[in-house]
Amino acid sequence: MISSLARLGPRLFAARLKALSLAAVAALAGCSANPIYTTTGVVLSNYSEGEATPYVLQMSDAQMACALGEGVDPLLYSFSRVTDAPDSTGSLLMLLAGNCAEYEAWEAELAYLRADYEGDVAAAKDAREVAKRLNALTAKRRYASFQRAMAAYEFDPGAEPLECPFLFSEQDEITFLLGLLTGMQAIVNDANSGAMAGVPRNIAPQAERAATCLDNEKWGGMPNAIRALVWLLLPDTRPALAPDPWQVLEHSRKLGVEKGMRVPHALQAVAAETFGRPEKLEEAIATFAEADATIEVWDDYRLVDEVAAGVVRFSSDKHWTANYGYRTPQSYFGRMSPERQTENVETMNLDDLL
Q1: Residue 262: CA atoms inside 13 Å, Cβ hemisphere, count?
Q2: Full-model pTM
Q3: Residue 57, CB half-sphere, CA atoms under 13 Å: how many?
């Protein structure tokens, strides 16, 4: 009998171990489907959509906003394991995270220009490589933001014929519009990285078509500015009777100032750098700086104007660093050289002193 028990013992132990393993797996499976997690995910998603997103869009600190994108996006999207992914809010969060990566890429680019100005070849090569890698990261994040924005409104940008999405609120419109803009930025970042991110170029004509779904006047010329940038990148996409893209950008700049969001200035600066038009770059920077004295920024979307300001200032910093070895002095923003301006300067009449 003792020998029988001895033979049976290992079997009982194995059976109990198997039962415990199954129980553990069941418990873990139960945790992953825990209704509390699902409820929390829904609540967090709704809060982000209804409260956090409007709050962030009103922020004036672009650096803090981008840090929020990097920090909150993984938390919010971890709940997509137990509930639907919050793609509308997620598009904005990934847009902000992309901005963080781009800010680092800007600093690397300025470091390259300083090293090049000073003739430090090794430092210039290293900084250029860092900038490429950071541009690739920025491109990946921005492409993800574009994809989320399209998914949020069940929009197929390549569908024929074009079927505009149902955008029920102003927040839906700005989220969709920023998604299109971010897709265009992803292409530019990928090009600056040497195509390390592999962003598909066909999203450019898709964004051009989708931009027609939005009211150009209401959104300060942003939709047409996006279209004009695509026309410059891909001339075949420009309609036969469409005006010159640079004229469209100029008109869009004026609308942007009227509405309080100077995104078209930023798009013109990017286009001018891309296509080697220094006079258009100077025009975009000068008119942006001039508008500071008169513009009433759209409070609900203050962050959009702040991000555009960063793009324009970086364009100015690149010009100053390449030509003078340092970034734009604050008192010279809007100008392209440190030379004193003598136009419209009041001079004292020495005869009055005699």
Answers
A1: 26
A2: 0.84
A3: 21
